[in-house]
Amino acid sequence: MTEAKRAVVVGVGLIGGSIALGLRKAGWYVTGVDTDADRLALAVGSGVIDDITSLEEVDGGALGVVAIPVGDVAGVVQSLLDAGLDVVTDVGSVKAPIVAAIDDPRFVPGHPMAGSEQDGLTGASEDMFSGATWVLCPTSSTDGVAFASVREMAVSLGAHAIAIPAERHDMLVAVVSHVPHLTAATLMRLADGRAVEHRALLRLAAGGFRDMTRIAAGHPAIWPDICAENADAIVDVLDELRVELGRVRDAIADRDRDGLLERLEAARVARRNLPTTVSAPDKMTEVRVPVLDRQGEIAAIAALAADLDVNIYDLEIAHSTEGPRGVVVLLIETALAERLQGGLMALGYRPSSQALDA
Amino acid sequence: MTEAKRAVVVGVGLIGGSIALGLRKAGWYVTGVDTDADRLALAVGSGVIDDITSLEEVDGGALGVVAIPVGDVAGVVQSLLDAGLDVVTDVGSVKAPIVAAIDDPRFVPGHPMAGSEQDGLTGASEDMFSGATWVLCPTSSTDGVAFASVREMAVSLGAHAIAIPAERHDMLVAVVSHVPHLTAATLMRLADGRAVEHRALLRLAAGGFRDMTRIAAGHPAIWPDICAENADAIVDVLDELRVELGRVRDAIADRDRDGLLERLEAARVARRNLPTTVSAPDKMTEVRVPVLDRQGEIAAIAALAADLDVNIYDLEIAHSTEGPRGVVVLLIETALAERLQGGLMALGYRPSSQALDA
Question: What is the ipTM of this complex?
Fold first, then answer.
């Protein structure tokens, strides 16, 4: 059967529009829902979606993608699930509150780490997710088949999918996205305040400052929501940042050259080791983990891999033709295979592994 | 007379080497001084300088350019002045301590706002200063002719020269360079610390974080010097940053959506208004200011223009053929001509101005 896969995208903005474009390019039939009728019309007219639909008339056989402000996600996800969709995912940038609100095996929480300075549908691009990391946060109730289909969608858009628990995701995005954004905005305001009446002098700002503050030029409308949803993690990281900046300040005031140099050297090493866009290592190993086909297995395995710092490059679920058993097949770097196998065995799994030819 | 202009560059690293390359390309004869004999040999061998010299045998007719760590600048500048050079400039990134140490009309303190992630002579490029802002900090004792020749050198390397008082320069670079650098390094260390044992998860870091922390990858060796020389301004700005980040934190903890949005909106406006690389406006006016040809006139006029937020696109000193009088010719944006003229008259000058054809 080669009938087109179908998706319904709720929220046809920058991210939703980009997903719609990418899926259409991959041959999907995509309908769109949006509170803004003009935007919907533009989306149809410009070929971003095939047709317009509404939450009341969504198609049960479609994959639901919710791409709206993070504070509104849970309600719409629930509507789509109530309407009978088999699989629903979202792209909200904070995950724990959504995971806490929705307990349904058909919901696969997600967050593509992509974006653009250009806001809205006009910034949408089918290449938006090429090479990006797409985080999925399966929970103990996530269905394996639902997870696999969302993962496959993310990969078909060119993203690298990784699975980590929602709480860890939220802490990490506070560190690598939310607090850096707030800091960039604060630095920009501070420079503007200091240069008041001398704005032309801000042209002293060289490339480094421009790079650091570029994200502050983005539309701020999404941030109150994000900050409200991820308040605890953001406050925690901001507190640590202020303490650390205080230590830097003291090192400078005390003329502690060695202390300062040590901090900067550590930062240099960390920055140089910052992992770049995922590219699969040369030597890969397939790890097969027999599981009972029950809820929570994927979440447990993904959480273990994250704990052990093992990236999962691919994940499949092979169901046995008879009975409730299946096999989760993981593709990981060969150098880390023993580590993951050890962890799996400690949890009572009985994995086997096989190195693949390069 | 078309004899080649001569320069002696002390410190043939990233910046000194780039200046040497640019001047040689413009037809200058450039000799180099460095404490590192291997680097000097490389500089000659790779055509960065014409020949090697030493502080003991510098050529009195050459322009001296001191491009060494900021803590060592004043001593070497004094050596060059003692050796009889007519004009000496430096490229140190903190200016007030150097200005305080050297009181000589032949010294024109400077700071090209350019750099590269690539350290050392191998990163040097004749294009390093193309479009960059080159700050000059004339003092009340700076000679007009010395100032004009350094300014001309900067312009010949493709830079846009602006003149501001040393103290203002130091405060501004604390805001747009030093504190952002220290903040980038701190954010990077913090992310690294939070991701410990899960480094692969740092690949969640999208472009924004990469942009913000890129400067932290640079070699830290220059920073203890910079932080020591500009300690007061840096500590002051770091304190303000910590206070402001505390306010952001409180707005988030208190769920103050409006307060947060207001801050982010202000930052967005400021970032969008950040002056880009200097490009001359369409309508320019030449302002002619008769002066007694005495020390301090240029510094006074430049300080006034900076106070009034009027950028000086070009500056020439036309000496009268007889007597001590001269005319400082300034090229500024027509829209700001009245403002500058008013300020000049308030200081007792008698400027005249003429709009230029576009």
Answer: 0.74
